[in-house]
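Problem statement: downstream parser choked on a complex file, so we are re-checking the raw output for the pyridoxal-5'-phosphate run. The parser issue turned out to be on our end (a line-ending mismatch), but while we're here, posting the original submission so the record is complete.
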Amino acid sequence: MPERVFNFYAGPATLPYEVIQKASKGAVNFQNLGMSIMEISHRSAPFDTMFKEARKDMLDLMGLSCDEYRVLFLGGGASTQFCSVPFNFLKEGTTADYVVTGGWSKKAVKEAKFFGNVHIAASSEDTNFNYIPENYDLTPQAAYVHTTSNNTLVGTQIKNFPVTGDIPLVCDMSSDFLSRELDFNKFSLIYAGAQKNIGPSGVTAVVIRRSWADQARKEVPTMLAYNTHIAKDSLFNTPPSFPVYIVGLVLKWIKEQGGLKAVEKANVRKAGLLYSYIDDSGNYYNSTVTDAASRSLMNVTFRLPSEELEKKFVGEGAEAGLMGLKGHRSVGGCRASIYNAMPYEGVEELVNFMKRFRTAN
Ligand SMILES: *Cc1c(COP(=O)(O)O)cnc(C)c1O
């Protein structure tokens, strides 16, 4: 194997190589302090500077003001947010709207039902989630509307979010966070497990509107209450310090690329190359998302003529240094995750391999 392969895993996933190299230095000797970033107190000045910068860089990239929004770095994965959101904001007897566009949204619904009423505002489950619904049936007085921006397993992505007016809009952005420009001001709460697009596993970013947090339920266990973490600037307890450090490096890398506008442009170009080859392959490769407007720029899902060929494709891909092309078991087939850190050359190599494979098989 070469030192670096092209890694198409869905998560944990590829990171910018510059970030890995920098992080490996910080892992040994952080800022020449003679200590690893893993060894220093989260109450020390060097850590505090790094931590504050990461939180500020995130808001800057999103075009959000630090008066209105807070960034929290929490443990427990995006899966814990499935429960924290309703625990804080779905009071007994009230209703939350959920847009169900994949397996992750379904898991979010399951948790919400422990706390209050759930209304499914739209769902594409009838066709195994292979499109994003266009119409949303919103509840007038809903506690909030929950969405999943990118559906990692099925390869779809919301382009037009529901217009909710005064009703808080919540979004699980785990698999496309900071991959494109969005009007982030319309969201009251965004959460993302870092391990898809902005870092390693072990930390979840939460961006929350302070004025909404003020309205949260008071009877919430300390660690699950957003206000606990807001009050202590995300240092109520020991944060996942090493993962946050790497997220901080990724945020600086995104800034160096030219911010979200530039990464979006690169992502559109990469996805365009791959989808157009799939669509032009004479039905040898078939996108599982036939509605082109619903297709994800991050997770490209496709099938080959038989399961046997799919297995061979994944195996020979790995031998050629193209790792992680197996689709999720709920969908089958193949999936290429092409997050921010996947270079254009990686997608070119993939397409070249797909051409060779098709000719040979
Ligand atoms: C991976 C993923 C999750 C789960 O994240 P964990 O950090 O493993 O809990 C939730 N939502 C989406 C959209 C995901 O892609």
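For whoever reads this later: The mean pLDDT is 97.
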